[in-house]
Amino acid sequence: DFKLSKKGLEISPSVTLEITAKAKAMKDAGIDVVSFGAGEPDFNTPKNIQKEGIRAIEEGLTRYTPASGIVELKKAICEKLHKENNLEYKPSNIIVSSGAKHSIYNTLMAILNPGDEVIVAVPYWVSYPELIKISGGNPVYIETKEENDFKFTISDLDHVLTHNTKAIILNSPSNPTGSIYSEEELKAIADWAVKNNIFVISDEIYERLVYDGEKHISIASFNEDIKNLTIVINGMSKAYAMTGWRIGYTAAHEDIIKVMSNLQSHTTSNPCSMSQYASVEGLLGDQSSVEDMKKHFEERRNYMADTINSIKGLSCRKPKGAFYIMVNYTQLLGKTVKGITINSSLDFAKLLLEEGKVAVIPGIAFGDDKYIRLSYATSMENIKKGLGRIKEIVE
Ligand code: PLP
């Protein structure tokens, strides 16, 4: 009977919790579970980056930093954005936060008023809708189609546009679908956003993990108009295997960055000091480990996608980026295996876990019940073993 906040009570628990908690309990009980649930690289942070973190600790760089981040890191981010993304920013356009999730939260808190709408494509990354709700906004969904590589179109955007539309979230490459928007598609979205004066929150956290020779393009790079409306989100977690260091960053118009910095100064203060020094090395130092990790991810993706498509009853598109595959299981709907009838992605995930000892994330967590999500941020050995088990259950 506690009188808790309406806002707090509106936030959903993670649908994936049941599955991941169960997988962990099984592992703890000594059961050999293969997990395809990972949302982080299975590699260690590269040595050169580790060393900089250690150096920062040893040199006493262990105190508060400026709330929006150290100037060395802001400069490194500007240099990176210039070299890799063809974007010109000054340190005053940058705020460093405690992970890209925190960057998105600060962004939404800075731009949303109660009732403002933010357009989100389904399947979405689990945190977008909840972050929008926490910030007082309303998520508005666009259902995408597998045939269109899970990408929304301009006509989809026109369909959901209202006087309350404040922003769209663009996540290319995408978690969970791995899709990448082409230059033409991005240009069309940019024109639409400029025409309607809508912010684009461009979550580019998976930009380095693109395959088949694809190239990531930042939507902010086309012209000044779209650059002014774009809030570029990125971070160290995925490209540099630094999920635990908690460093994300935002590049945007100074007016937006100022509000975000003020907010951050009263909530989390600065992001972790030594992580910031390590991140400077990450962005400016030797990039060969990123390329090496990417090579592994691409090999695993190829093997996983080909194997899934060889299993009767399952299918998938070969994703172009990130490290996830959305597996369509709808041919299995209504079938009963080992006493479990498959009526939903939760049922299928439950069957795979309980009977196959394989943990996957049910698509409902991303707003689309027709799929399960498999992560290939795990060893080839695990992938072979896990897919073998799935094949056995399904066929
Ligand atoms: N954006 C997307 C699409 C993600 O998948 C993730 C992590 O899973 C994040 C942002 C946040 O990453 P971090 O907060 O570790 O920087």
From TrEMBL:
<dbReference type="InterPro" id="IPR004839">
    <property type="entry name" value="Aminotransferase_I/II_large"/>
</dbReference>
<dbReference type="InterPro" id="IPR004838">
    <property type="entry name" value="NHTrfase_class1_PyrdxlP-BS"/>
</dbReference>
<feature type="domain" description="Aminotransferase class I/classII large">
    <location>
        <begin position="32"/>
        <end position="390"/>
    </location>
</feature>
<keyword id="KW-0032">Aminotransferase</keyword>
<keyword id="KW-0663">Pyridoxal phosphate</keyword>
<dbReference type="Pfam" id="PF00155">
    <property type="entry name" value="Aminotran_1_2"/>
</dbReference>
<dbReference type="GO" id="GO:0008483">
    <property type="term" value="F:transaminase activity"/>
</dbReference>
<dbReference type="InterPro" id="IPR050596">
    <property type="entry name" value="AspAT/PAT-like"/>
</dbReference>
<keyword id="KW-0808">Transferase</keyword>
<protein>
    <submittedName>
        <fullName>Pyridoxal phosphate-dependent aminotransferase</fullName>
    </submittedName>
</protein>
